[in-house]
Amino acid sequence: KKAVESRQAATEASCSATARKRNAETHMKTAKEARQKAASTREEAEASRRHAEKFRVAAEEALAKSVESFQEATRFLTKVKQECQGVGKGKIWWMNRELEEAKKYMSRAQLA
Question: Where is composition skewed (Polar residues) in this entry (predicted)?
Answer without folding.
Answer: 8-17
